[in-house]
Amino acid sequence: MTYCMRPNFLALLLTALCLAACKKNQTDPYYNECMQLMQTVQDSVKAGQIEWALQQTDSLQAIAPDSNYYQLWNIVKSKVFFAKMNVDSFIKYNATVASFLQRNPTNNNSNTSQARQLLQAEWLMGRGAYFASMTAQMDSAIEYNLKAVKTIERAGIGVDRRVLALANLADCYRQNGQPDKSTIAYMKALELADSANMKPETYIIIYEGISTTYQCMHNFEESNKWWEKTKQLMPHMNHTDKFFYYNNRGNDFYLQHKYKQALSCFLTIDSMLVEMPDADWERAFAHANLADVYVHLGETNKAWPYINETEEFFKKVGYAVPLFYLQTIKIDIARREGRLQEALSLINNNPIPQGMLPDQALLRLKQMVLVQEATGNFQAALASERMLNHITDSINLQNERLQLSTQLMQYENDKVIMEKEQQLYSHKMRLRLSAVIVLLSMLAVALMIIGWRSNMRRQKYKNLLTHQQIVRLRMDNIRNRITPHFIYNALNHEMLAQMHGHPVQLESLTQLLRRGVEQADMLQTTLKDELEFVEYYVNIEAQAMRNDFEFIINIAPEVDTQAVKLPSMTVQIFAENAIKHGLRGFKTPDGEKRQLKIEVTRQNNNTLVELFDNGRGLQTKENKEQKTGMKVIRQTIQMLNENNHGQIDFGFESRSDGRGCRSWLLLPDNYDYSIITPDKKSKQ
User: Cys staple from 246: which of 142, 265, 457, 566, with CB 3.0 to 4.6 Å?
Assistant: First the structure.
């Protein structure tokens, strides 16, 4: 995964001081003037006038009316240095403010000045930003941002400040591998922003944060919805906002293996940075991501200059997370180029440190499994695989928690709305009670009807959830039968090979079983991945059938195999049946080769996948007997067809010339592979 920059801290850090400028304070007339001056300084920083901004803060400190305002200008200075990623200067001014706060504690009463309350909150957010962006100590970042949120709520500084603090907290949760808490915090920030009718600039960071959170959970359907919302705010984005948008949008494409789209995003960033000569930090991240994408596109010669450049930069600033990421890219390059011992050495010399960000640990573990398997170190590969599965299971668990939390939030929101509506309704009834006594009976009937309909809706919803659970369990039961079936056939294949004196290929068998179990665990896959798996399987089978067998795949130019979806292992089972029951052990006449051919074409709004073999054809016994694989295909498709108007069709038959068998799979466009949901059922 490309290195994912957080969408908030660099964009929010300077913005935070200035959004409350319109708030009036009767007891402190200098407050609003100070806020307006801070806005001017912030705009100069965004325009790249860093030195001018620092000169202005020096001159404004000289006329600060008291120590609180003097320290607020120190906060501004620390944020300017944070934007430049000048760690030492940032720490210096942040520590100066901390020392002032310790020497002059507050009792949090109503007499505390607004400037002092703002100073306390801003310092807490600054500390949170430091631990999140400069040290990657997310636990500490979360602690300080939680304190900032509580301080702002207690002081009543303003909704705008609370929104920004919640957005920072949400981003820390995301980087710490807690997407459920991250989404909840973002949703709270969004609700507050809506209630306060805040400017579009505020929604940029919220929408982008929600998009990135769903992206980290690989829920690309939801992330794409929020990316589209973010894109609509492009006219309101400055250079920094656009940088984060294209960087994180590129990461989203990368995770979906859409490397060309990811490359386009990162190249857009690179062209933008030409106008930002002081954006060394942003340029380093963009170039690190470019290096990773070029590796996956097979252009390592373009990747190395970026790797060397960014590694030198991150060593200079002492930032460990991207350095770890660059080492992972080097491991990937060495593995791809066959330098396995070098890749293994990089793994051993650069272990995963405790507390590393979950997405970076996940990326490293994937490379470790590939390298260890390739070098024959299967025990180490198994240990790495277990760690990888543990993180993946954790992501899946967080996804489930997020769905539950979202449903609970929706329920609470609906409950509040219903309570407000009920209160309004009761109030109106009390006002009219003296004049409309005759309507009391009608009101009672109406309330009874409302109660009955409410109970009916709740019961209908419970029944729907029960039905949904039953359908899911049935589908899991059907699909789980593929795994033992596939393992049995694969093992039986190797046993037969051994009985006939052929060498046993344990590595190929291990790869086949591993990929087969992965495929069987998924309800749907792309036609591209399915054909790659079939080709891998058939190549292994071809070794046993020697030189009198050939395998052909013909794909029509108008077919986009990456876009076509189908139930996983469907084509593989067709191919397995063709080889096992049609071609294996069959002697073709006149010295012809045994042949298995796959044809993929378009038919109206459907994709047709056909498999032809020139073997023995369908036998009477096999026509009557349904094999395990075909039963699973039939039951899976029947379950999925229940939720779709367009139906998947499949079948198998003897060829018209009597030489072999033809099997086919007709896949409609826009087919829905999801199990029945409450939204679908309610529409019905």
Answer: 265
